[in-house]
């Protein structure tokens, strides 16, 4: 399913895009509200370590 969306275009102005990110995620659920809302885009940076009390995204067997 994830590979099906590799051609997606994202509607951003250049000044809205961070200089350094590893991936973009489009949120399709309300399960993380109110912190992250349905329809939001996330610019993801893979950190060298994960700290306590932070929001993280995991990928297991190719699925988020």
Automatic annotation (TrEMBL):
It comes from the Bacteria. InterPro entries: LexA/Signal_pep-like_sf, Peptidase_S24_S26A/B/C. Residues 3-62 form the Peptidase S24/S26A/S26B/S26C domain. This is S24 family peptidase.
